[in-house]
Specification:
There is one protein chain. With 256 residues, this protein is an alpha/beta fold. The chain is built from 8 helices and 7 strands, in the order βαβαβαβαβαβαααβ. It has a single domain, classed as NAD(P)-binding Rossmann-like Domain (Rossmann fold, 3-Layer(aba) Sandwich), CATH 3.40.50.720. Helix content is 50%, strand content 15%. A 7-stranded parallel β-sheet has the order 3-2-1-4-5-6-7, sandwiched between helices. The chain is globular, with a radius of gyration of 17 Å. The structure holds NADP nicotinamide-adenine-dinucleotide phosphate.
Length: 256
């Protein structure tokens, strides 16, 4: 097993890609704390983690709030004793409209969850990792953090910000023997991408099927990726197999 005896914290571990990562980590031997707002989803994933013989810890919280992030980290440290791996996976797509139609509240919420939430989790977890001189942090960006996407300025800005945060924290944490890397998934199969494509179709007036074809055709492999493919990359970045890597932005996007 590649993560035998490790202790991980995965934000947004109750659904989608975060759920796949939490289960992949458990399969590889790690106990996993998962934090998000929907308790029922968390409880269901914890059942899956425990059926793999590992400890699961559900924590109901919103990562946009500083006090709640402190509670997530305190509870994980209290229950697990340490955090070896942090995955900042929580994210929201935000509005699909041109910037002239974006109100400040929408903008601020996307930045608060996707970027500030990740920074707060890094800040709190790094305090423990620095004391122990060990740890791996994995941020979840997006291919929207590699290019522009018309109609999605808050989301795109949040993901470019996350890439910059990754490069900077790798510089700050490296001397403490802590690695900070980032995964950019492309369109990933699941309910979330269906909602995103429908919102784009509505905003542009294009048929949904045309939007979907565009997403698929952009990738040389002519398909979306699966949450499990993204999770495999997270296992690699969490494990000793990537011990020489930090400050890297890896794309899991079928090439698109
Ligand atoms: N799906 C894609 O095609 C795709 C592509 C590129 C990047 N990504 C990124 O990958 C990550 C996961 O996406 P996904 O596709 O798995 O989406 P998802 O199924 O919508 O999952 C998002 C997760 O984030 C959690 N979350 C949302 N707001 C939160 C908050 N304020 N505090 C704590 N947790 C919160 C959600 O849980 P609760 O609702 O329970 O809080 C959920 O567990 C996101 O950062 C997304 O931007 C996705």
């Amino acid at each position: 097993m590649r993560l035998e005896g490790k202790k991980a914290l995965v934000t947004g571990g109750g659904a989608g890609i975060g759920k796949a990562i939490a289960l992949a980590f458990a399969r590889e031997g790690s106990d996993v704390a998962i934090a998000s707002r929907n308790r029922a989803n968390l409880d269901q994933v914890v059942q899956g983690i425990e059926s793999l013989g590992r400890r699961g810890l559900p924590i109901t919280a919103d990562v946009a709030y500083e006090g709640q992030v402190r509670d997530i980290v305190d509870e994980t440290l209290e229950e697990f004793g340490r955090i070896d791996i942090l995955v900042n996976n929580s994210g929201i797509p935000g509005a699909t409209r041109d910037v002239t139609q974006i109100d400040l509240e929408d903008w601020a919420r996307v930045l608060a969850v996707n970027l500030t939430g990740a920074m707060l989790c890094c800040r709190e977890v790094l305090k423990d990792m620095i004391l122990r001189r060990a740890g791996s942090i994995i941020n979840r960006s997006s291919m929207a953090g590699r290019r522009g996407v018309a109609g999605r300025s808050p989301y795109v800005a949040s993901k470019w910000g996350l890439n910059g945060l990754t490069h900077t924290l790798a510089l700050e944490a490296g001397p403490h023997n802590i690695r900070v890397n980032c995964i950019c998934p492309g369109a990933t199969e699941g309910e979330r991408i269906e909602r995103v494509m429908r919102a784009l179709a509505e905003a542009t007036g294009e048929p949904y099927e045309k939007v979907k074809r565009r997403y698929i055709n952009r990738a040389p492999l002519k398909r979306m990726v699966t949450p499990e493919e993204v999770a495999e990359c997270a296992v690699f970045l969490a494990s000793e197999e990537s011990s020489g890597m930090t400050g890297q932005i890896l794309e899991v996007s079928a090439g698109g």
